[in-house]
Amino acid sequence: MAGRLAGKVAIITGGGVGIGAAIAKGFLAEGAKVLVSDLRGEILEAFAAEVDSDNLAVFAGDITNIEDAEAMTEAAAAKFGKLDVLVNNVGIDKPGTVTEIPVQQWLDIINTNLTGTFYTTRFAIPKMIEAGGGSIINISSLAGVRAIPGMPAYSTTKAGLQGLTNAVALDYGDKGIRVNMISPGATATEMMKDHMQGLAKSQGTDVYGALGLLTRFTPLGRACEPDEIASAVIFFASDESSYITGQNLLIDGGASIVDPCGSATASLGKAWGEE
Question: Is residue 154 within 8 Å of residue 141, measured between CB atoms?
């Protein structure tokens, strides 16, 4: 039986690890032809060896370099004949408040998370128009909706993706191009697990114990798994979402509906307003 993405050609940036790898594997399982890009060639080589599929191509390049972004798009079209889907997944999240973060670090985060997405989108759109339409999915973060302490650059770029998503959806809807955004909450990627090492050590637990502490006020009470993000991306890439554009899907276990004051009160054994 044909998969939900049979006949589609996709680019996934940052697709060799974490959420990107889960998306790439999901796309291949659903019948898509996929080009995965990453700055790190060794990551791509390992991923290609693991997947071992004729429907997978890899491209080592830097999306903050406009020439690389264009070459990546051309490579996908040359290899597979067209382009239907772009998943803008690359992102970096180095910390530092506005008075602490080095200026170059701020610029690096802006260039990677926001300008790089602009570049890849700029070159993908003409290919999608040639193919009769397409779907662009931007991977944002709950941090673009609610700020994380000490992460102003990351939060700014992820909030900025909403504006870019809306603008491109509006400008190219009449060309059959849909643009949507997915905003994950805490997700158990290797990068997130690395971030949890300090908390785990301080609390005498492992990284999953630390993730449990991190998500204890989340209604579902756990971190998301990368495959759960991939499932939503497949939906947005498929024809099942043919009348959906300009939307931001929060995959956060319900974290965005929680009042932190009420949760803090409940964690002390008291109901809100209880004497």
Answer: yes
Considering only CA atoms, give the Rg of the chain.
Answer: 19
Hey, CA dihedral for 77, 249, 174, 64, is it positive or negative? negative
Is the residue at 94 inside a domain?
A: yes
Residue 4 CA to residue 222 CA, distance in Å, equals 29
Total tally of structural domains belonging to the chain: 2
Kindly list the catalytic residues.
Answer: 154
> Is the CB of residue 5 less than 8 Å from the CB of residue 31?
yes
Determine the Cα–Cα distance for residues 21 and 254; give it in Å rounded to an integer. Answer: 24
- Mean pLDDT throughout 205-212? 89
SS (H, E, C) the chain: CCCCCCCCEEEEECCCCHHHHHHHHHHHHCCCEEEEEECCHHHHHHHHHHHCCCCEEEEECCCCCHHHHHHHHHHHHHHHCCCCEEEECCCCCCCCCCCCCCHHHHHHHHHHHHHHHHHHHHHHHHHHHHHCCEEEEEECCHHHCCCCCCCHHHHHHHHHHHHHHHHHHHHHHHHCEEEEEEEECCECCHHHHHHCHHHHHHHCCCHHHHHHHHCCCCCCCCCECHHHHHHHHHHHHCHHHCCCCCCEEEECCCHHHCCHHHHHHHHCCCCCCCC
List, for residues 156-193, the tens digit of each pLDDT value: 999 999 999 999 999 999 999 999 999 999 998 887 88
Domain that holds residue 109: 9-186+225-255
Residue-level length of the chain: 275
- Sign of the CA dihedral running 258, 261, 263, 266: negative
| Domain-located, residue 193 | yes
What gap in Å lies between CA 113 and CA 92, rounded to an integer?
7
